[in-house]
Amino acid sequence: MTADEGAILSRREGDVLVLTLDHPPSNALTAGMRAGLLAAMSDIGDARAIVLCGSGRNFCSTIPIDPDPALPDLSALCTAVENSPVPVIAALSGAVIGA
Questions:
Q1: Ranges assigned E (strand) in 4-62
Q2: Closest listed residue to residue 56, CA positions, set 17, 9, 14
Q3: pLDDT of 2 over the 60 cut
Q4: Which of 4, 21, 29, 30 has the fewest other C-beta atoms within 10 Å?
Q5: Can you tell me the mean pLDDT for 15-23?
Q6: How far is the C-alpha of 66 from the C-alpha of 19, rounded, in Å?
Q7: pLDDT at 53 over 60
Q8: Axis-axis angle for helices 74-82, 31-42 (nearest 10)
Q9: Is 48 within 8 Å of 15 (Cβ atoms)?
Q10: pTM recorded for the entire structure
Q11: Which is it for strands 88-91 and 7-13: parallel, antiparallel or unpaired?
């Protein structure tokens, strides 16, 4: 992922895997961000829970004019959360708009 596409930051806090959307200022879910999030969610090791959060002031706040046709799409992320072997918690703060 390039700096323009943002990054998914991953850290462990005990048994919890914390995944941070890091694409300032809005943490837009670009194709690269979606792919990074899917990769991080598929490699949780022995974590007993996942927390999703956004860096900065916003969780994720983008409203694309045209839907992004690149894969993975939003439904792939929703499926990964639904099928996660551990609880997934979204720590929402700031703007939470769009995908």
A1: 7-13, 16-22, 49-54, 60-62
A2: 9
A3: no
A4: 4
A5: 97
A6: 27
A7: yes
A8: 20
A9: yes
A10: 0.89
A11: unpaired
